[in-house]
Amino acid sequence: MTHANETPVQAAGCVLWRRSPIDGELEICLVHRPKYDDWSHPKGKLKRGEDHLAGALREVGEETGYGADPGAPLSTVKYFANGRPKEVRYWAAEATTGAFTPNDEVDRILWLPPTAARNRLTQPRDKALVDEFLVRVFEHT
To answer: Total structural domains in the chain?
Structure first.
């Protein structure tokens, strides 16, 4: 049985973005996890004692192969996973250098324009992060 006062699993991730190398347009990176057959933003559980932002950047590197330059903090998303409460803190982060190599956790990534990324994401909570990212990060650029 799940208790509401159970300590949430702490996780962190990023809405990872870049300017397209082809046309300079904004692209957002999505990761495909074969275990769940879903598309999401790169994220994962924190290691013991790990800072949220450090964990978010580590997960981006592990799941996408890219370094990232963190920007504006985004929402903390709260939901239940496997019957336990989970909290995921997100940041906007610009991809720096790197290259994707498929692994057991993530077998594909896609760089998509925001509308296509929003449509491809599996969870509504991830779609909402794209909207927040566009307002917080790109309305003034």
So the answer is: 1
Q: Which one-letter amino acid corresponds to residue 127?
A: K
* Residue 78 buriedness (CB in 10 A; 0-12 / 13-18 / 19+): exposed
Task: Record the tokens describing residue 83, joined without a space.
Answer: 């019957």
Domain assignment of residue 24, yes or no: yes
Integer-rounded Cα radius of gyration of the chain: 15
Q: Token digits for 66?
A: 């890219």
Q: Which domain holds residue 75?
A: 9-138
Global pTM?
0.93
Nearby residues of 51 by Cβ (< 8 Å), 6 or more positions away: none
pLDDT tens profile 5-56: 689 999 999 999 999 999 999 999 999 999 999 999 999 999 999 999 999 9
Kindly give, in sequence order, each residue whose CB lies less than 8 Å from that of residue 42, ignoring residues fewer than 6 positions away: 13, 14, 16, 29, 31, 59, 60, 63, 64, 106
What letter would DSSP give residue 112?
E
Tell me whether residue 50 is in a domain: yes
Residue 1 pLDDT grade (very low, low, confident, very high; cuts 50, 70, 90): very low
CATH label of the domain that carries residue 16: 3.90.79.10
